[in-house]
Design a protein that fits this description.
single chain; mainly alpha; 12 helices; disordered C terminus
Length: about 280
């Protein structure tokens, strides 16, 4: 009942906002090339979808985003693990990573287009460069936040560093890694759009640029609406994966407990010295 009421309140708030927008534009007689009314945005959205134009460019943007996300996540997790687990790598490599991250990616985008061309590769590289740093930082923090008492206990039981990593550090870091993936997915979408702004033959960013030249502001708003929905869908996808991967995490159990239709899943954790000892022996 509460969920139905919240959905109803959300729909009422959305409808009120759209009506207020429409009324403000018409009463103040704001020109459409400054701020189009929602009715014209909907017409532009329908025209773009029915003609297949938006779907064709959306395919390229989604492909660039997902490939950039995968590449950036793999790079961020690998570098984050290396920096967190090896102090020499941290000493020699981490300053260069921070220096590179401080560079504005918008300024790098033209160089990336020159190096990799106007096609798919330059957009994937741009999206990966924007997406990899959140995962790198979260991986480092997660791996280093393991309970030192448990690490000492496992070492006293003759556990190797590889065993400590797979059985203690990595499970402890997973909530941090999933939070980094959540941010990295949105960053990958932004990186792909920035790359399309600089130079592209396809994609929603290129479509916005072409609409800007023709003063089609309603069309630009409709593409921005599509991009916001895509970002929401990608975020929901990451949350769904997080729910499946972190079913043992206390925060996910608490969320599941708040959903009456879903029973919280139970699973063994690393809590308990006796269990740690048993797992080390079994390894």
């Amino acid at each position: 009942m509460s969920r139905t009421r919240n959905l109803l309140l959300t729909a009422v708030f959305f409808a009120t906002s759209v009506l207020a927008w429409e009324a403000t534009v018409r009463l103040l007689e704001i020109p459409p090339f400054v701020l189009p009314p929602p009715s014209k945005v909907v017409v532009a959205l329908w025209r773009g979808i029915s003609s297949g134009l938006y779907l064709r460019h959306l395919y390229y943007t989604l492909l660039e985003t997902l490939l950039g996300f995968l590449l950036g996540s793999l790079l961020g997790f690998s570098l984050g693990t290396a920096v967190a687990m090896n102090r020499y790598v941290e000493y020699f490599l981490y300053p260069y990573i921070v220096m590179f991250q401080s560079l504005p990616k918008v300024a790098l985008a033209p160089l990336i287009v020159i190096w990799f061309g106007l096609g798919l590769t330059s957009k994937v590289v741009n999206a990966a460069l924007v997406a990899f740093f959140p995962l790198l930082v979260n991986t480092m923090v997660g791996l280093r936040s393991a309970d030192e008492d448990r690490v000492s206990l496992m070492r006293s039981l003759a556990a190797s560093e590889r065993q400590i990593f797979w059985m203690l550090r990595l499970p402890n870091a997973l909530p941090f890694v999933m939070a980094g993936l959540d941010v990295a997915m949105i960053f990958a979408l932004i990186g792909a759009i920035v790359g399309e702004f600089v130079g592209a033959t396809s994609g929603l960013g290129m479509l916005i640029q072409s609409m800007n030249f023709t003063m089609d502001v309603s069309g630009q708003f409709s593409v921005l609406l599509v991009l916001s929905l895509v970002g929401l869908a990608l975020n929901r996808g990451i949350l769904l994966i997080r729910r499946r991967v972190l079913f043992w995490d206390p925060s996910e159990k608490e969320r599941a407990a708040r959903r009456p239709s879903e029973e919280p899943e139970t699973a063994p954790t690393l809590a308990g010295d006796a269990r740690v000892k048993k797992e080390v022996s079994a390894w």
